[in-house]
Amino acid sequence: MKEYINEALEKYIEKGTYPWHMPGHKRQPIEAVQNVDNISKSRENFWNGVYAHDFTEAKDLDDMHEPEMFIADSIAEMKKVYGTFATYMLVNGSTSGLMTAIHATCYRGDVILAARNCHKAVYNAICMLELEPEYIVPDYVDMRWRCGVNQNGEQTITDGMTDASGESNRGTREKMAASSEVNHETEEKAAVNGEDDREVSERTDILGDISPDKVERAINMLITDGRKPRAVIITSPTYEGVISDIRTIAGIVHRYGIYLIVDEAQGAHLNFMEGHETAMQQGADIVIESLHKTMPALTQTSLLHVMNPKLDERVRRYLQIFQTSSPSYIFMQSMEKAVAFGANNRDEFARYGRRLEAFAGKCDGLRNIRLFRPDASSVKNDEICNACKVFDHDEGRLVFVVRPGTVDESGQKFTGVMLAEILADRYGLIVEMASVSYVICISSVVDSADSYDILFNAVAEIDGNLGYEPDKTDRQELDIISGRRSAMPPGTAWDRLAENVPIEGAAGKVSGAFVYAYPPGIPVLAPGEVVDRQAVNGIKSMIDSGLNVAGVNDGYIKVLCGE
Fold it and tell me: Residue 75 and residue 63: Cα distance in Å, rounded?
């Protein structure tokens, strides 16, 4: 038999591309971070090492599902590292953890309050349990851009983040206030023409945090309707690194006797980073973390943390269902090694933080491709910034935003997908995800200072060849994620007879399947939701921009027959 997978991957490795995406080990052994010699030799011995360490539940070995020996000892150490009541290894990824958490907290037919930007695994669990979901839709975040001309005749910009009303969370607020008597339309025209360096606000396609006020309002409305939710589930950090105020949300949720699940899959490194707290530390009942995303661990390795002892028995019951009965020892060893590395090498994470800070500072000079960089300290502590849409942000998530109106040398509209393609084809830099208006690069403690220099130089060179023309597009028309009217629960619609119709002809009909761009897997449509014009426009925009859209086949989507 020909080894297609192994041959293809060996050829891919020979291309010499650099992974600005998960897994967090960046295809290097952990020893590479510590500058240990003979790294190439360790790569050569990879297969020998893998086969030698691939065990099963044999005599004198332990069972991950019922640990009594060294696996139990390892888990006990992890509980100390994370400060949890119970921690479980996940060899089926965070998907199995999310499925377990929802089944552990909810019963069939319950109401669940979910952030609309949750992962598709959350929606699958909702369907399986026939839950009635209610959604909290976060607001889109605005970004400030300076469009004037500096003394050298170059276009200049700044990176202040704003809320939807244009309120800045940086020092630019005073500058805006000082010029408030100037006619807004005249000001913006002058800025675009380069006559001053005033900042203007542009809405991004990045969703902000989940507001505690929105959570409480939604809970009260549901209780008033006699539909008290059994659980609340949110994603923090998001794929773009946006972090919500988990402590305040947990206090609200628990006051009503409701469970809080936090999908912290993108934040497994936060426990080891200065200036951040995990969702466990802030009061969540169950937290799921993907070690492979931001820690040096193998793909498909995650952890489930239980903070509420009342839920532990049901968690263990459902882990037996959603995890394989033959857990990989290789995965278990990888998880232990990654957590031990984090716990024993916090100084490496401090250096990682300094590399990120230096990199972000260099990116401040870019023009039309900017690093998404909200001022988290101001958002959390400065009274004048309470309206900002970002509570906190993971500085390790490098999101490069393309300003609306940016064009390439030929005058063509420049997109995030185009940026990703140029980075890959011209520079060998592979991003984690490309969206219509931005790309996501996932950094980790493994990335060296040189790798950041290479990334910055590539982005800066691309940025230097771009121009800007005022974008007249109504950004609201491009909203992809939204709360849509449900005709029936997703689980009910999932089992109904469906037919394929052209996207254009789907408006007003009931969706029969999930439609989402992957990554990250956030549904634009879920089964049972009424397809509105906004959804049609959003799906068409994703396809036109070259995104990988699941649930669309040759321009057709599934809708329920007779609905």
Answer: 12
